[in-house]
Amino acid sequence: MLLLLSSGARSRYREDIVRCLALPRGARLQFRYDLTIVDQAIVADVRSGKLIGQSALVCYLWNRVEGAPTEFAPCRMVQIVKAQIIGSSFIVLFEAGAYPRISDNVEFATLLSDDAKRLPHWEREGAAYKLRGLFAVELTAKLAIDTSNDLDAFEGVVKKLSQFSDFSGAKPCQFYAVAGVQAVNLDSDGNETFTTVSATRHGSYVLTSGNEYELLIYVFAPDQGPVAAISETAIHVQSENELIEFPLAKSREIDSEYDLKKFRFLTESNLWRITGALIVFVSPKHTIDDGASDITVPVIFQGRWAAGVGRTLLIAVGSSVPAMLAAAASSKLNFGLGVLMFGAAIATGIGTVFLGSRKT
Question: Is this model's pTM higher than 0.70 or not?
Fold first, then answer.
């Protein structure tokens, strides 16, 4: 098993932890490490192709006080899907898995005791301290950790992270998680009903064009007491694919420590498959800037081929039958001419329905 660390040394590293927690199970995220802080066993596995499919644990590293013991907070189990060495960088792409359940950081430090000397720690050099150790490590022993996909496990991770100054203080991080997608339907009385759409194992949602859906986002922050101020910010959703529409609000104000935010989205009915992604991020305004902790949720809208075939046949019948009747009335209709007329009508239907409706 691998251990992949991210610290609070830069805002991007801190946001990577927020992103990792926010992703739906199976969705992908990329980390990058300088080779000087990567275990040589990992480098060897990358070059031999053995790293693909391996399990890893993403952890936050607290190292803000020079000379003090470093601490590690487990965040999420992941599976490696791609790993490369490009120049002086180790680039790893992984799929998000379950959330770990660890009672406290001391318990987790005990699990890492066999590799403690290789992990980041402060060492004195003269009058100063220097952080030494690896940020991407192949662990000596497999970690026995209880995990869960439930959002209460997500809350448990957030509570532990919020104990550190990188995620709290004057500018706290806003944690959130994709809680799912549901289809919006109408019953016989005109009332809305909802059906849960299961994600694929790779974290994407396969939908149908022309139908309306709802993206569910759970926002959470540990209770800081009745007089604690809530940061003025909002959670947003958008898409780079212009065919994906948002009929209601694309922004929801975050006005409590915990809430379920809902965003409606859809595409017009289309014969062709539409691929895209929903981009979710946190910001006081509707722009992705520093601290936005943005993630992408892949969506695939299946085309309505059956409806297209039906329309094509209707066009073919509607345009060929009158011509056949006219030919029959003049005693010119025969089998070959009938086939030719119907074939030409089918071609017209295909051109009208399929080629004329194609959108890019």
Answer: yes
**Edge-to-edge order in the sheet of strand 2-7:** 28-34, 89-96, 71-86, 55-62, 2-7, 136-138
Q: How many residues does the chain have?
A: 360
Whether the CB-CB separation of 55 and 77 falls below 8 Å is answered with yes
Is 197:184 a contact under the CB 8 Å cutoff?
A: no
What is the SS3 assignment for 100? strand
d(CA 302, CA 274): 7
Rounded Cα–Cα distance for residues 278 and 136 (Å):
30
As a whole number of angstroms, the distance between CA 25 and CA 27 comes to 6
Q: 194 pairs with which residues across the strands?
A: 184
d(CA 238, CA 297): 10
Residue 50 C-alpha from the chain's centroid = 25
Buried b (16+ CB within 10 A) or exposed e, 288-325: eeebbbbbbbbbbbebbeeebeebbeebbeebbeebee
Cα 144 to Cα 74: distance, rounded to the nearest angstrom: 12
Task: Please list the rounded mean pLDDT of every run of 10 residues in the chain (360 residues).
Answer: 92 92 95 96 94 95 88 95 96 96 75 87 89 94 88 94 83 88 90 93 90 96 56 86 93 89 92 89 78 88 68 65 70 69 64 53
Residue 175: predicted pLDDT: 94
Q: What is the pLDDT of residue 142?
A: 82
Answer for the pair 233, 282: CB distance below 8 angstroms, yes or no: yes
Give the contacts of 25 (CB within 8 A, at least 6 positions apart). 96, 97, 98, 149, 199, 203
